[in-house]
């Protein structure tokens, strides 16, 4: 009987750890949006005169960041949730219009480079989600299954490390305008994931 209770306690501790990892991933998603906003600020401070389009892009990036940060709050009414979703959808719509406008001013090759870097970020997030899934699968699993899951987790972490290096290298090769488009896309994509 005491052994069963200890096992339940260990499972509860593992669940708490998995939930903490989920929170960490959500925090990483918020950090992506925040970093994108801060990177846009840095980009715009390089130039002395900001155009109206740059101010609008920064405003939309701040709105996305704000929307992502507010997702942690709880709502007491369905109408509050609906209002927040509508507001977020409007922010995404504005961001998409700006992104389309930026892409129209770029060559297909430049847009392709931005998409390639965005895909690397998507892969990193996919591996992070895989790690959480693997951590969950370890709960209540046999010793052999836990060992396999641990091995897969290590492989996923190594892949993330390699992708982070690729992301950093490719990001440095993008022009200021391409980075602007990238950060806008990353932020709006994170907000879309939360809405859906």
Briefly, what is this?
88% of the residues lie in helices and 0% in strands. It has helices spanning 2-46, 52-69, 78-104, 108-138, 143-173, 176-195.
- Biggest sheet record: none
Output the structural class: mainly alpha
Beta strand count? 0
Distance between the terminal alpha carbons, to the nearest Å? 44 Å
Using the alpha-carbon principal axes, give the shape: flat
Helix content: over 70%
Unreliable stretches (pLDDT < 50, length at least 5) are: none
Element order, helices and strands? HHHHHH
Number of helices: 6
- Rg over CA atoms, rounded to whole Å, is 20 Å
Strand content: under 5%
Q: Mean pLDDT across all residues, rounded?
A: 80
Q: Any idea how many domains?
A: 1
